[in-house]
Structure formats: structure tokens, C-alpha cells
Amino acid sequence: MTRVVLGIAGASGAALGLATARHLAAIGAEIDLVVSAAAERTLAEECGADAFDQITAVATRFHERGNIGASIASGSAPVAGMIVAPCSMRSLAAIANGLDDNLLTRAASVQLKERRPLVLMTREAPLTLAHLRNMTQATEMGAIILPPVPAFYMLPKSVDQVVDQIAARAVDLLHIAPPIALDWKG
């Protein structure tokens, strides 16, 4: 079974984390989950009081953010990659600058050093020059920046469809299963 790290940072867009977890579970991936303190609050505010329980129920393993001795803090952990959904500008900055100050940012750094896929659903608007530079720096190290931009050409009927499509795209970028995102038919 394929093992994937899912990080949820505190940016708005907590539903992206939930949708990503559901997609990973649906393709049979084992999910190693790590959630920032701000993300716990954002999950509750944006997705309901039980959102944290929902996402931990889907995860195979839940890791406390302060446990930098967790298996996912080491390159020897056999994972296929990591998605941070959503990725706050704080987490992006830490990842881009190698500040492994919590398990989420350490696990992301491990993906980069091991040359594994790292998908960052960066969530902020408008962007400052610092944000853009951090995105460039993370990209130069091998991360994939996937801002949660709707594919309007797919004519989504609801916000849930938009979120679902973006999350599916993130999972597809790991190349661990046949594509699950809707594809453009032309």
C-alpha cells in the first residue's frame, strides 16, 4: 500500500485538506497526517466542530506537530510524497528556507531532500514579494506549487465540486494511482 504524508497548515481552505484526505483514502493510500495549531482552528471554523475528528478518522496515522521524532521526520520512512493542503504562507516560508521547526515543515523538508514529490497548495491573495520569492525558492528545490485555483472551464456547479477537483489534482501530481481529477475533453 502506498503511504503519503498529508499536512494541513492554518491557511483558509481547510476543506482542501478534508477533500485531499478523502481522495487519498479512496485510492487506498495510507495517510500520515500532521496538522498545525492554526489548522485545527481553521478546520473548526470553516468545516465544523467535528472536522478535526473527520480528518483524523480517515488518516492511517496521526502525528502530533511537535513530535519531530515521528517516523515521517526521517528519510527512511517509506512514503511516496507529501501534500500540504492548504499551505499557509508561514509554512511555505519555513519550507522554502529549511526551518524545520515542527513536524509539518520537517516532513516537507524530508520530501525535498529525498527528491520525493511535495505538493504545496499555497493559499493567500494578494501575494507579496516575499510570498513569490518563497514559492520560487520552494520550486527550485523541487516542490510543486499548486494554488487552489478553480478550473472554471470544467463548469463546476458548487464550491464542493471546485474543492474536490483541486484536491484530486493534488493527488494526481503524486503519480501514485491512475488520474482521478476530471480531465478536459476539448
From TrEMBL:
The keyword 4Fe-4S does not apply. It holds the Pfam family Flavoprotein. Dimethylallyl phosphate binds at residues 153, 169. It catalyses: dimethylallyl phosphate + FMNH2 = prenylated FMNH2 + phosphate. Keywords: Flavoprotein, FMN, Prenyltransferase, Transferase. FMN binds at residues 10-12, 36, 88-91, 123. It is an enzyme of class 2 (transferase). One of its GO terms (molecular function) is flavin prenyltransferase activity. Its EC number is 2.5.1.129. Residues 3-171 form the Flavoprotein domain. SUPFAM superfamilies: Homo-oligomeric flavin-containing Cys decarboxylases, HFCD. InterPro entries: Flavin_trans-like, Flavoprotein, UbiX-like. Flavin prenyltransferase that catalyzes the synthesis of the prenylated FMN cofactor (prenyl-FMN) for 4-hydroxy-3-polyprenylbenzoic acid decarboxylase UbiD. The prenyltransferase is metal-independent and links a dimethylallyl moiety from dimethylallyl monophosphate (DMAP) to the flavin N5 and C6 atoms of FMN. Belongs to the UbiX/PAD1 family. This is Flavin prenyltransferase UbiX.
